[in-house]
Amino acid sequence: MVHTQTQIKQKKVTFGKTNEVKGWFKLTDGTKTHFTISKDGEWEQWGNTRDNLGVSVAFIEELVNFLTIED
Fold first, then answer.
1. Could you tell me which residue, 19 or 28, shows the higher pLDDT?
2. CA distances (Å), origin 10, targets 18, 23, 68
3. Which of 11, 13, 44, 53 has the smallest C-beta neighbourhood within 10 Å, fewest atoms?
């Protein structure tokens, strides 16, 4: 049996007027994860299994670093 690791296939990131970032990730298994990042760097994601939520953590942390370091 070949086990393929689920990865981010497509993403949408929207930067709001109040420095909030929101968007979604579409994964290679066809599921979608939604997320928000507040202006102080707090983030949350929802809409997927625990394993699939873990797929996007590294990307979200990169966004948080970008947002909090650039200010």
1. 28
2. 25, 11, 24
3. 44
